[in-house]
Amino acid sequence: MSNLPLYRDPWAKLDAWRKSPVFQRTTVLRNLFPGFGIAVVAFTAYVVADNVYLSSRQKPEEKQH
């Protein structure tokens, strides 16, 4: 006995692209926002640098009488 399936799907070749790794959900989600990771790092560095800069230029608090 051969191990061939009992039926043959005539559309198998046409649907083969759906199983391609290019169209998998994780690949699509990873490539949805290509520069997002770099933008998060750049924005975090900006916020940290801005807070350090502003804390060094802080005005001395005025004394109340």
Automatic annotation (TrEMBL):
Keywords: Electron transport, Membrane, Mitochondrion, Mitochondrion inner membrane, Respiratory chain, Transmembrane, Transmembrane helix, Transport. Belongs to the complex I NDUFB3 subunit family. The keyword Electron transport applies. The keyword Membrane applies. One of its GO terms (biological process) is electron transport chain. The chain crosses the membrane at residues 32-54. The lineage of its organism: Eukaryota, Fungi, Dikarya, Basidiomycota, Agaricomycotina. It is found in: Mitochondrion inner membrane. This is NADH dehydrogenase 1 beta subcomplex subunit 3. Accessory subunit of the mitochondrial membrane respiratory chain NADH dehydrogenase (Complex I), that is believed not to be involved in catalysis. Complex I functions in the transfer of electrons from NADH to the respiratory chain. The immediate electron acceptor for the enzyme is believed to be ubiquinone. It comes from the Eukaryota. It comes from Rhodocollybia butyracea. InterPro entries: NDUFB3. It is a single-pass membrane protein. One of its GO terms (cellular component) is mitochondrial inner membrane.
